[in-house]
Amino acid sequence: MRVPLIAGNWKMNGSLALVEQFGQAFGKAALSSSMDVAILPPLPYLAAAQTAFEKTPLRLGAQTVNPELSGAYTGEVSASMLAEFGVHYVLVGHSERRSLYHEDDSAVLARAQAVLSEGLTPILCVGETLAERDEERTETVVLNQVKTVFDTLDAQQRQHVVIAYEPVWAIGTGRTATPEQAQAVHAAIRDCLADYDEQMASTLRLLYGGSMKRENAAELLAQPDIDGGLIGGASLKVDDFLAICQSAG
Ligand code: PGA
Fold it and tell me: I want to staple 26 with a disulfide (CB 3.0 to 4.6 A). Which of 45, 56, 189, 204 is the partner?
């Protein structure tokens, strides 16, 4: 049985006031105890969020990390620093990091390894562009992104990864993959994971991301291989995010 995970990726949005608002709303929200919920705020808000979320079911996540432990890397943060603030999940390979900050597959792998070495959970983001989908290369692209990381991790590490399938053409565009399109890719990812280890494949959580909102969350989450969501825009409004969490629980 896979426990659903709903993770809100605030990107470079939000404020201290929004952190407080989420802390208050989730402090009194009735959520199923058999689900995980996380907010990934911008890094400067981690300390405030750690306090504000203390008496809520919200776990903390980070949107990026540097693969090195420490050193002369101006502007960067390490996984051990994130761990000190109670961070549980760390995004690696988000399409915005891949395209805007040129993080290639080896950079994504190094980040996943750094996150795992601190006992945190990487959320490995994978997804095809519209051109790749039109060329019918979706599976090839997505499975390659998965394999680049999974080929190098050991059996123990693989179990601790969460994968988020996020078609690039659906991120922030209001255009969502249909439940059938998303399910097809999720099933292909799970089949690919089964080549490493069937037990791991059946327990590893696969999230969908890309314009998931309160109106479409339930039917996406009802798909057999969709175990949660990575939510961008709709995670900035507390009522919308709560509604999405409630449709997963
Ligand atoms: P979106 O973003 O929900 O705004 O499409 C998802 C993401 O980038 O993780």
Answer: 56
